[in-house]
Design brief:
The chain is built from 17 helices and 19 strands. The protein has 543 residues and is an alpha/beta fold. Among the domains are: 182 residues; 113 residues, no CATH class. It comes from Hebeloma cylindrosporum. InterPro entries: F-box_dom, LRR_dom_sf. This is F-box domain-containing protein.
Length: 543
Amino acid sequence: MVSLPIELWFYIAELIPPSDLLKLVGINRVFFTLIMNELYNQLSFITSDPRVFIDKLTELQSPGLAERIRVLTLWPSAVRDAVNAIQPDDADVPGTLERPTTPKPAAYLQKSRERVEKLLGHRRTASRVRTPPKAAFPSPEERSQMFHDAIRNLTRVEEYEINWYFDKGNKESAWKFSFFPEIWQSIGSNLRRLSIDVQVFKLGDIVMSSGSLPKVEELLLTLRSEVRLGHSGDTTIPYFLNKFSRTLQHLSIKTIGHQELSTIFQPELLGRFPLLVKLSIIMPLDAHHLRDPLGFKQLLQNNPTIRDLCIRYSRCCRPCTDDGFKTYDGRHQLYSGVSLPNLHALELGLHIPIPADHTSPMLNYIGRLGSDLTSLTLKDRSLTLEEIRIVLRLFPSYQLKRLSLFPRLLSPQLIDLIAKTCPDLNSLSMDVEMAVGLETAQLASYIDNVEGFALGLLVDAVDVENDRWRYRTWMLADVSVMKWEFKVGHQYNFACMKAIAEAVPSVRSFAGRGHMNVDDPVPKPDGGRFLVDLGNRTKPFDT
């Protein structure tokens, strides 16, 4: 083998297709390390099967293998059940019926042959070799010790995901885990990404021994609540968030089920996050669930470094037509007076309907959060042409570079509206119900007509009066149109994208792929990552 610098081997590895990289595991030490790190970088404890659990713990006794793990996924209830599982008796499996292994005539013949051999004094050798009995499981105490030993070897974990929302625990006595301190002690120093999906009353059991976690940059919280269990709220969440005040760059909080949201944003407890650049809030932000709006407003005011903001209203216990935060003078209790000078990307949920009089203090003040907005994503509502016109009017649309939305109808009028409102737009992404050739207020129902849309758009693209191409100065370079079709499913509609490309000469890419080749619909993977194609197989520890 030719001796080459390590940097050159890394460059060669980037040029090899993912499906072929696994075949080169034995070529040299560089390829071996790259592929083994990719194969064994994920470890999951998500099954209560004791055999799978014990096999993983046995393999993790090798420190060299444990050091390759970078991503840890843990379901505490699965670990508990796997530790306490009792080895089943194969001869007494419930739900099975004992049946003869041979038909009745053959069984009678076998018994007659055995009687004759007994009379003659002959003994037949066994034609079937008995399989050795299965090895007995280690005791629950031994399994628990094996798990603790394996956890102590996980010293290089950078991503940690906990899912603890489906369990037999209850409000009074959630199952207490003796291994949480060991986990935090082993992985806490190098942890960069933490994801917790948990019933809110169990959060304290997880984080009470978490320590400082000095390198966490990304925190994703999903807090669940059930009416029958209830949760009055406490100070766990604000104090837990404050642990990451010096390093946190991405914070996501999502709630499921009825909760008092004021306990999350307690203004007297929640601190500042000077490095925070991305904030995602998905919860029912209305006066019924957020009784004290001061804490949420203070979170936005105290973090002007936010560049990427996601605010999505999620439905909960009752339909909501208004968030209830409008003041007597037309201001909004959550967003009025808030300025995010670094805001460039906004993802906005529109579950709360747009008023018929087109006046919404919430939308008006959200549109004023940042004057340098370049990316706008509208979700959770299929918008009419007039609603799109209203919403785009509230934002600095003239400087948008990227727009993503869910139009009800894809029509030439919609493309013309976006072209006039967003002249500097570079990327347009739409998920539509149907395409039509003409959208008018007189029609109550439409029929899907992609050909009519293509023809109508091409006709409108020609400015007959001035003898010029209407969209010749539009900066649009990439377009994406997704659409549901009967017997086809929800996928990209290349006919609609081609129609837009024929009318807008600047389009050079479909669906963010960098080209307009219809025969290659699969997006290219992100560059710079080592991917190993295992076919139908999963990674050894990620089961």
